[in-house]
Amino acid sequence: MSGGRDGDGRDGEKPVERRIPGPRAAADDQERLPPARPVKPPAPPAPPLPHKVLTSLLGAWALAACSAEETAAVEEHLTSCAPCADEALRLRDAVGLLHTDGTLDLDPMLRSRVLEGCLGRRPARIPVPSWAAPYDAETARLDALLRDIGDAEWHAPVRLKWFEDDRQAHRRTTVAGVIGHLMAVDGLVSRALDLDDPLGKGGSHLPPTPTGRTERYWSAALRPPTRAVREPWRDQSHTLVRTVSFAGRGIAERSVPYGDFDLPLQDSLLERAFECWVHGGDIADAVDYPYEPPAAAHLHRMIDLAVRLLPATLAGRRRAGLAAPARDLVTAGSPGRSLHLEVEGRGGGDWYIALDSPAALGSPAHTVAQVALDGVEFCRLVAGHVPPAEAAAGQQGDREAIRDVLFAAASLSRL
Questions:
Q1: How far apart are CA 162 and CA 160, in angstroms?
Q2: Composition bias, kind Basic and acidic residues: at what positions (predicted)?
Q3: Tens digits of per-residue pLDDT, 322-339?
Q4: Which fold has domain 125-292?
Q5: Burial (0-12, 13-18, 19+ Cβ within 10 Å), 290
Q6: Which of 214, 222, 271, 314 has the fewest CB atoms within 10 Å, measured from its CB?
């Protein structure tokens, strides 16, 4: 039988040999990688920059505005060139002043120091009396604050605080209203010196009290005060200082009426300096402005004035039933009891306050109590900004006497 099949199933064909493909080359097979590019030789170093160019780069280097190459070139040059190194140090110090973290506001005592330096070299022909210097300094400091604020800030709300009937009282006004208040009360001093009254002829018919004059000024204004009040207030303060400077020594004892009491002119201007500082701080708080306390010598005199007024104030509170009666210890030659007031910090010192007689002087030998306060804190108490119960940092001795003196200090405040 013909036509049979081969072993691979195909009819009449020869068997085909099968081939298995070989393995693929690996990815890292060097024979199949593209040939490496030739490596370029390193570039020759750049020629050094000329001295003139390096000098011109010192300002940019001080400001850290140079490129890395320029910075390296300048710093290498500074190691070998002394004049450029000195100039670079000067420029770096100047840049440090541009980036200071301190406040840019002028030192409030700058005017006083400049005037002191000028007068030390060439004394004024008509110097300001020493007792008028605190008023001159505080009005100038407040005026510097007022020059810095904008028109809108003159209408910023200000809360005036004082102590009345053993509780804190307050009154809301504006920055311009505070300056009007200061001007109206300064008018008491103007009237005593026969100067123009800021309230005009109507001021002479008012009771000579700070509150009455202030209310008259505020109510007489046709509209809320604006920054226009600054110029007449500043002119008035300049006139007061100029007048007392030309008047001579005898003017210091002239009486200035305050309604229920009188003050000598020298004490009255010191009291006005105190009010100017206190209300300057009220304004500074309202417009977020830094405001420092007075110079230590001026603050000491303000504290001394408050202490001298305390015995009479304490006697008045006794008459009104607001303080414990005086002890029957005042005999011939004896000043009675005393309270030792120790004021610490700026303007500090030691005072002995007579407790039983407004005419007596305090004596260390008869001390029955001691109170310690910071100088600025004592002034805040006298201004009615701190409750008496929270004022004293240290108390020792007769608790009743301490309470009466602290409340009497607070009652010195007023609108």
A1: 7
A2: 1-34
A3: 999 988 654 555 668 999
A4: Four Helix Bundle (Hemerythrin (Met), subunit A) (1.20.120)
A5: exposed
A6: 222
